[in-house]
Amino acid sequence: MVQRAELRFLSVAGVAFAIGAALCGGTAQAATGSGPVTTHALPAEGAAAHPGAQPNVVGGHKVTEDVPFIAALHGKADQKFHCTASLIAAQWVLTAKHCVDGSDLSFRIGSLHRSSGGQTADSTEFQEAPGDNDVALVKLDKEVQVAQYAKVGDVGEAKVGLSEHVFGWGYENPDWTNLPEDLKTSSGSIEEVGCGAGFGDAFCIKNDGETSGGDSGGPAIDEATGNVIGVCSFGHKPTAGDGFGGYQTVVSKEVRDWITATAGV
């Protein structure tokens, strides 16, 4: 996470993909221009999972309390970090659609460190949300028991003004460099709903940290209920110190019903 800066939709493994228009009321930015561009949030160190993904929290704060459901998504073959994810049931992980491409994945679950600790499990099945919704579910090769699974929110829970916090292993610098080993978090509120033209059904946040490469797939949590209401999807690169992040909702009726039908939760 970068402290108050713009981000893009990129995972650690991805190459920045300029979308040419800043979301959430921003002005259009050409991919070759000097201003930030909006794109997926994937990290640059891993193998590209989808053209255009890359957020991590620039700024924000280091997480010090246990987050039993948090998961770091790695390529199984090379063990390079790609994205952040959440364990929502014993065999199901929730992340962003652009973080998966059908390649075998490995997950480190329940650790605050992306490359050590916790429990590990591998992917066996991939399910993508319908339409443009940037949400995916990954079935694991075994059941993983944790003290707390991430609870997906109720339909319509993501609203303007709602207080939230997010988790991710995104880059720490505004230019999307310096990938952290320790999980980070930022907090704030939803500033706009329906801000993701071209990115599916999304909401945009204003926090004390910016989304950046590596944050993709990480959860947005309703401060009041503790429910997951979205997954990190896009941001601006470089970040601009405005606390921006784009999150794909998981509490629209379409996506929420699909999660229940697929994972049973």
From TrEMBL:
It holds the Pfam family Trypsin. It comes from the Bacteria. Keywords: Disulfide bond, Signal. Residues 57-264 form the Peptidase S1 domain. One of its GO terms (molecular function) is serine-type endopeptidase activity. Belongs to the peptidase S1 family. This is Trypsin. It comes from Amycolatopsis rubida. The lineage of its organism: Bacteria, Bacillati, Actinomycetota, Actinomycetes, Pseudonocardiales.
